[in-house]
Amino acid sequence: MTAVGFGNPYLKKEPVDFTKQPDALLTTDEAKSRTYWFLYDRNVGVAAMGVQHPQTDLTRLLCRFRDSSGFRQEMCESLRYIAVSSGKKPVSLSVKQVLLPPDISILPFKFDPAVWCPLSWYGNSCVFELDEKHKQLVQKVQKILMESPIAPLYGFVEPHCLCLNAYRLLDPLRKGELFPNNADDAEWKDCHTTVYERTKGVLASAPWTYIPLSFERADCTTISLAPTGQQCAKAIKSWASALQESSGLRSSATNREMMQLTFAFEVFPLEGETASQARRDVVKQITDLLLAEWGTMEFADPKLVCWRTHTEFVSYRDFMQEAGSA
Question: How far apart are CA 158 and CA 290, in angstroms?
Fold first, then answer.
């Protein structure tokens, strides 16, 4: 196995985490070689290794020491020298390059892991907000993840922004669909106003738009919901079609994503046998809780909202009031 640990041997001979993925281990053929990279970034408290090149999808083992037990982050704070040895099996080693640690976070344009806060990510969409009972239930779900060993790898949606982001209209990469000739010059105030003017006929039906949804499944970042029957599914499809026809914008969400409520997001890739087991334990706890308490949530009164980051929004009305007073 390939492992991360402290001391030689590791404390109680137990690594912090390890991997047995085939390409993260030495080759069984002495004539073949493999390229690995090893990283410690003290700014974010991450130790990681992977194959080929240092990037997110090629990571095979990752530990984040910030907010972890003991003084692991403090022990590595002034790390200056690294010794490399072969262990029990003699191998030949060629060091190709030494450089500053690259960013291997998952959302480099939406979230800054160094200061642990979201970056500006503007857009608009139609969302269904939660009733108080289900909002408190989702906060219980967040607490399960927050108290788990894998919590340092995740960011969390603020309670007041928990919602079903059902129809995703615009984001920074799609302004050209609204203003094909001058997307770069278009202000977001104009984008939001244009979308509102196009969709206000459909939005006028919000007080009698009603979608009852039941719990289907969950993972560490989303809760997947399902229509309670065929008529409910038909109503959702008709509502989405009306929004597309009026706005001229397709939703960037798939049918599955349309029914997912996001409560957290991965900042760093979850790689390692110990972390993977912890994730399975968290998913089981969340699933058991929601099976027992979700029941049916009666989503209603969808609203056009304006996104400031990928997790924070304000209503269209509040955005226009702020823009008018600025």
Answer: 19
Q: Dig out the tokens for 18 from the structure.
A: 């390890």
What digits encode the pLDDT tens for the residues 45-76?
A: 999 999 999 999 999 999 998 765 666 777 77
DSSP string, 80-110: -------TTS----------PPPP--S-TTT
Neighbours of 239 (CB within 10 A): 19
Q: How far apart are the first and last CA of the chain?
A: 58
Query: Is the CB of residue 103 less than 8 Å from the CB of residue 292?
Result: no
Considering the entire predicted model, what is its pTM? Answer: 0.91
Q: Indicate the SS3 state at residue 31.
A: coil
Tell me if 67 sits within 8 A of 48, measured CB to CB: no
Q: Is the peptide bond before 9 cis (omega within 30 degrees of 0)?
A: yes
How far apart, in whole angstroms, are the C-alpha atoms of residue 289 and residue 286?
5
Name residue, tokens 């984001």: 171
> How many secondary structure helices (H) and strands (E) does the chain include?
8, 17
Domains (range + CATH), the chain? 2-76 (no CATH), 111-325 (3.90.1140.10)
- What is the per-residue pLDDT across 181-193, written as a single tens digit (0 to 9) for each? 888 888 999 999 9
CB-based contacts of 273, cutoff 8 Å, min separation 6: 17, 18, 19, 20
Give the amino acid at 94.
S
The answer to whether 62 and 47 have CB atoms below 8 angstroms apart is: yes
- Under 8 Å between Cβ of 236 and 279: no
E-only strand ranges, 53-207: 59-64, 111-112, 117-118, 123-129, 154-156, 163-170
Non-local (6+) Cβ contacts of 294 within 8 A are 134, 137, 214, 215
- Output the six-digit token pair for 274: 């110990």
